[in-house]
Amino acid sequence: MNISKCFKITIAIVCFSISNIQAQKLDKSWRAITHKNEGVWFASQEAKDIAENVLLYQRNVGGWPKNIPMQKKLSDNEKTSLKLIKSDTHEVTTDNGATIQEMLFLSRMYRQVPDERYKEAFLLGLDYILEAQYENGGWPQFYPLKKGYYTHITYNDDSMVNILKLLEEIKNDTGFYSIKPSYETINRIKVAFNKGIDCIIKTQYIQNGVLTSWCAQHDEKTLEPAKARAYELPSLSGKESAQIVLLLMSIDNPSEAVRNAIIHAVKWFDNVKIKGIDVKRTFGNRKITSKKVVQDENAPPIWARFMELDNNTPFFCDRDGIKKATLAEIGEERRNGYAWYSRDPQELLDKYPEWENKYIKQAKKKTKDNYNVVVAKDGSGDYTSIQEAILASKAFPYQKVVINVKNGIYKEKVHVFSWNTKVSLIGESKENTIITFDDYFSKINLGRNSTFHTSTVLIEGNDFTARNLTIENISGNVGQAVALSVNANRSNFQNCNIKGFQDTLYTAGEGFKQYFKNCYIEGSTDFIFGEATVMFENCIVHSKTNSYITAASTPENQEFGYVFKNCKLTANDDVSEVYLGRPWRKYAKTVFIDCDMGSHIKPEGWHNWSNKEAESTTFYAEYNCKGEGFKPENRVGWSHQLSNSEAKKYTIENILNIKSEDSVLTWISN
Description:
about 675 residues, Glycosyltransferase, Pectinesterase, Pectin_lyase_fold/virulence
């Protein structure tokens, strides 16, 4: 071969290689380009040309639209069009890596080419991110807000995690980003980051009283799991949640709330991992043409992207929004075009032991007092849910078990079991320590006795105390829906709100003694009902509709049923016809002493529940009451106005069978 021919071949090979290298760069996705290792390429003309595109695509509000191949060469007409829509705020987002990727690219450019335009665009993007944050700490998918599910707090595709990672790098001054904001902006970033982490803690889903993981999106107001697209139903996420926990694990010296969130999430991930299957993909023309779940005992663990909120069962969903049990039931377009399984959580499980050794094992030097614990939603206590604290309590203890509950809304069903005796549930404040749920008769649907399964709080352990909290059933006017069910002896409630509609308070237990003092109790029909002997002292009893306050079912040989002393009977403004009571069972006993009755109380006072026999077997009475609703001369003839001598037996000692002052202190004043 002569030299001339050899030279031509060499040139051809070099040209082909350069052309191929250039094509490889331009063929890369925009995300791959932004995540290129830093180096001199970011000083190349090719990088500068891309940077010009990035600057053009940025809107005046500071953010960028998504799914834009910034590396694609623009025509002059396209450049002119982009300049004309600079002020347009539609479709500006952090979804699919938008805005974050552009800021990362500009940072890498600025390190090599300190063009002030790159810095200004980066800082404008940072202002955009800070401005877009909700007061509760979350971020929407689009800002300015776009109607629809886009307003939800968005963990989907790691949108919020990507934001917080960027803020974390900047506030910690790691040098990952070459552009440093002002001192004032750094302080704004620190506040925004802490609010974002707080939002993550507040949105961690509680399943049967135990923290689990997160949904891909949460309602921006209620913080509850929320729906996005038709096939993205409220669920627990096996993908996005992993990145959330990895972010939490990156925090130096994490708070107790953060540590608690991580510990529970890791336990959840370990519990829901799926073994023995794999997802086989078939490709054609660089696209997935088939996706199929196969049995493979040697496959590493895998996690479903969507799991049921109540029991972690994986589910799949097509564009029709109907849940399916298997991936094979999903249409080809969604089956092949969506990531239904993930192995991201494995990274979390691999890193957890090192994190645990650093932050947990060292912290276990302090011994917990099992008889005095704290429940706090933010993780600053021993438990984050009340039920979790009860499950950890000793059975039949020799001393009181005090569960201190910090302010917060605890959406959970609380059950104090019969073996959980001597439990005291002490709220931080009546107004702000709230236990709430929304079960009702037709929702439970367990037959004719479904009412008794609806309670938000069920007490079955004797010697129970509750103070300074609110217990509510928020179902509304949907029929029977119990807020508080007390089936325990020597139970007392002081300074509590008990709220509901029909059947708010169920006081159960033949011969059981119960005490309510300085409480607010509201409802509609029969909202105080049951067979126990109960004394209500200095309480406000509020009627929400025209109906009946009490429905006692006092046993025949029980001396006392319901006794209201020094209570005030109030009602909504539109309520004007309320009975003091009617007999759920024919030996019902209910007495009002020294009570202030509003004008809503009907003159006749009492109702026989269409049972004539009950008029001779019930004992309904009043003594020394006052108010517009106290009209003894108009009461039904079969009710009673107590004489002075008859009223003397209605003392707290007699009603509650307390034999000495010491025993009064034991369970009434304790």
